[in-house]
Each structure stands twice: as structure tokens, then as C-alpha cells.
């Protein structure tokens, strides 16, 4: 499990990412802490339009064992109220934003 900040534009939300399938080593390498032990935010820096050509490319990469990992992001926080705040941030600043753009977020991790 990875825990840290997910960032897009000027927005962040605390989240936990749970490994579902793919290459666990890829996740360990890509989401490793800094040498000083701090966890850098996972920055979504690009949008990918949800067009068939792009989706087919992603589907092709998911057939190659070293080319993908699937993680589930969930809100996290210090207490119940903080988790609810983070959940709202994920919903409105991430999910609603990308849905309105008919796009997926892309983070360059390696």
C-alpha cells in the first residue's frame, strides 16, 4: 500500500493506493519514498482523452507484465472527518474534473 498526496493542478488529496494486479516491483520502484524518507506527491501532469485509440494503447500495455500495475485509490486521513474531507476533494477536484474533460489523468512515475 502507498499512502500520500495525489495532486492535480493546484489541488491535493490524501489517499491510499492499494495494489490490485500487475507488477508489484514496478509500484515499489515508482512510488518509493525520497532518500530522506518523505513521500513525494503523485502528480497528475497530463490528461489522456478517453478515445478508442488511446484506450486500445493502454489495453495493449496491460497485456505486458512489466508495463502496468493496477491500484485502487481511496481517501485517507487522520480521523473520520478528515477522511470525509479527502473523499470530497477526490470526488470534486479529481473525479468530476476528469469526467467533465472526458479524460483520464496521467502521472509520469518513472
From TrEMBL:
It is found in: Nucleus. GO terms for cellular component: nucleus. GO terms for molecular function: RNA binding. Gene3D superfamilies: 2.40.290.10. Residues 1-110 form the SPOC domain. Coiled coil: none annotated. Its main location: nucleus. It holds the Pfam family SPOC. Keywords: Coiled coil, Nucleus, RNA-binding, Transcription, Transcription regulation. This is Protein split ends. The lineage of its organism: Eukaryota, Metazoa, Ecdysozoa, Arthropoda, Hexapoda.
